[in-house]
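Lab notebook, bench 4. We co-purified these components, and the gel suggests they stay together. Before we commit to crystallization screens, I want a quick structural picture of the whole thing.
Request: model the full complex, all chains together.
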Amino acid sequence: MSGFARLQLLVYMALRSLWAHKVKSLIVGSLIGFGTMLFVLGTALLDSIEGAIERSVVHSLSGHLQVYSADGKDELAIFGDMTMGGADWGRIDDFAVIDEVISKVDNVEAVVPMGINTAYMTRGSDLERTLGRMREMVRAGQVADARALVPKVKRLVGLLDADLRNQLVIAGEDSAAELKEKLARAERAASDALWATFDSEPLSVLEFLDTRVAPLAGEGRVMFIRYVGTDLGRFAEHFDRLKVVRGEMVPDGRRGILINQKYADRVLKIAAARLLDDLAEAREASIPIEGTAELAAKARRLKTQGGAIELMLDPDDAEALALKLATLLGVETERNGEALDLGVLLELFLTVDDDNAIARHAFFYEQVAPLVDVYPFSVGDVVTIRAWTRNNALKAVNVRVWGTFVFEGLERSELTGAANLLDLMTFRELYGQMTATDRAELEAIRDEVGVEFVGRDNAEDALFGGGDSVEIDIGADDDFDAVAEADLKREKRTMAVSEEFDAEMNRKGLVLNAAIMLEDGDRIAESKAAIAAAAEAAGLKLKVVDWQEASGVLGQLALVVRVILYIAIFIIFAVALVIINNSMLMATMERVREIGTLRAIGAQRGFVMAMFLLETLVLGLIAGGLGALAGAGIVIWLGNVGIPAQNEIMVFIFSGNRLFPTVGAEHLGLGVIIILIVSLVSTWYPARMATRVEPIEAMRGAD
Amino acid sequence: MKPIVELMDVVKEFPLGKVTVRALRGVSLQIGRGEFVAIAGPSGSGKTTLLNQVGCVDTPTRGTVRIDGQSTSELAESALTKLRLHKLGFIFQTFNLVPVLDLAQNVELPLLLKGGLTRGERDRRVREIVDQVGLTEQLGQRPNELSGGQRQRVAIARALVTGPNIVLADEPTANLDSATGEQILDLMERLNRDQETTFIFSTHDSRVMAHARRLVTLVDGKISSDEATEAAA
Ligand SMILES: Nc1ncnc2c1ncn2[C@@H]1O[C@H](COP(=O)(O)OP(=O)(O)OP(=O)(O)O)[C@@H](O)[C@H]1O
Ligand SMILES: [Mg+2]
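Here is the predicted assembly.
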């Protein structure tokens, strides 16, 4: 009873004493209050951000946990790292085995096989694609439609011709002959003699152009692509952020690729569209183009994109567009009796400033985009993906684009936007694993090229490079007959695209890593250990990492911010600590007689200790309490209005366009614990000094 | 009857650099329950040193000090503190009240340190003793709102509130004018008589000495005389 009364008295004395030294209390109190506010605000925000990153990472690509081979030299980085796909994560030879083992572990919802790689992707040149369309028209009996495209082909051939002539000027003796031969082919393609036979024998003309001329134009546009090879069905089932926006999901048992919409918009789209997007977006946000160096540069680049658009237009469309542009721009279509050049109109149209950016953007998508290929391919097209196999040979596989997708809520994020989804069979093939298709192809090569014997042992070498007897060179020119090459290509592509496989084929075989989805995402550490143990028991050499580790630099981002926050808070509290320590030491010295008196009339050392500690503690709890409440208040306010994501990385970090942070009892509790520690530590020494004051000090005269 | 305070051959030396100050040079003294004793002597004669030995805030270099039969040099620091709390009361020359506490709280303080009493009991004791020192009107005032004499009366109330065996006062009137000093001495005398508490106080002032019933005179750290005064008669 009186123990409590004694405490009451001590608290009362502490309050009185703090009041008696108002200025000092205010300074120390503000420091503690500010530090605690920062702590509560900072940790609450960080936890919210970490939770958001977790939602982004876990449900887009990584799952709660990732496993990969213990043989890998590099650490798994799901969202990419500095090695540009050159990282060595080892490989898991048979996914079925690990699936079997890991699926049985408690709390595991699913194991999703994966293989991440960086490759490049090409689609045919404009010439090749135009010829392809013409062939389809002819086969469908629409020869007249095909004929309408002839001027376009002629224009493209003209460009090729010019290009070859330029090359000839700078070419040396040895390549000159070869270039002249190519030039002859290009000139033939442009000649009236050839086109005179188009009406009677369109297919043979097209055949000539396709096999003898189109290869001269090279591969068309080359685009880097990062993909995650996976069991697409399983992936879609367990990564619920995945949403197909155009086209359709790759059907079960079929090969194919799903292109990330973000990647399509940011990387694949033609430059004019991308630049217009950026400029219009900036204007929507009222950012001036002229005053912003980056935007001004984009505007200048945009002006030069007319040629690329013009090349893609069909002749009829070109004329119609010229009229529309003239109307829009308010210029005469004829000047000095001559029709105004479309190139000039396009350049005028693409001259964008602060006032017209948004309107031009809209006009572009309404009127121009439908006439050109804004994306290098459309849904349903076949693209060629090339990757370096593990044997350092270049491997090319044709694959159908089934659709585009987004990770819902992360549409704006470039980090998740960098990942495209590929079927596992194609991934394995590009990685360099022998498939049935490969074997068939090997046969074909043997027949075509006439290699006498490709043994089982050196078959892979033969296919993926390493042996000198056979090499598949994908370049436009090579030693063996171009016709044979083109045929071979076509055959290979058809096989790859149309091949079907069953679920078991998908499951059995090589992967690089696997994502593990847990039923209860709060038990990550526990499940991680359980999976590691299960793998160990099954004799599998696997590394198990959580989503944070698996996301590479990104996972560490929150950690870095946390460390910075802790350092800042530490500094604030360290300053508070020193100030409190000093002022309490001074107080001890000033109050020697008072302490001596208390000791003389029977107060034990513990009472004196408590008196000093409580003084700081009361101040700490009042100031810290106010600070913590202020911090919590700010978080709650932010939780209501949301913090907007300023850029694409932040969309990922916030797991959406806005972060709605929350504050929990643990943040306040931790804040209080820190105040307790700071108060006790800072006052410990002065309080100990106070306990050493002898009761005899009370007896000394008033000197 | 056993003496409440017993000093046997008490020597107190203070090492001061190379020399040693001998403040008490063999003091033997017995004080019984309820005595009202003045310690006199010239400045530097050892009065304060002697009271400190009795008050258990210091222990002798040699010799024995017994309080209620208990030798102080055998006790640990915390036991000495407990002894002070339970058996002793202090009145200081400079009053030594806790500035942040009001009158009642200052007086209640020793009761809280002692513990074991309910709030009601504490309140009753405080009122009683404050009434005896005549400060009921000032109960809620803080030390800096009180005069010197009032402060010393608060100190007396604080010293007596736990009902100690001995009250020690080192020059309790030195910081007061003579009239107020007289009043304080009268109060101490009355309380000594009413409560049978032993009072030991030191003083320079012969008028103060006149109140004592026994006068111990120190010279140079030794008792030069120890006699009953006229007041005892
Ligand atoms: N802590 C100490 N250290 C050293 N010397 C001391 C100490 N306390 C007292 N002395 C010395 O011991 C002697 C006795 O001092 P004490 O204070 O007991 O005298 P006093 O009779 O109380 O004198 P006053 O009337 O001036 O108060 C003096 O010479 C004093 O200088
Ligand atoms: Mg003295």
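Chain B has a mean pLDDT of 92. Worth comparing against the SEC data before the next meeting. Chain B has one domain: 5-232.
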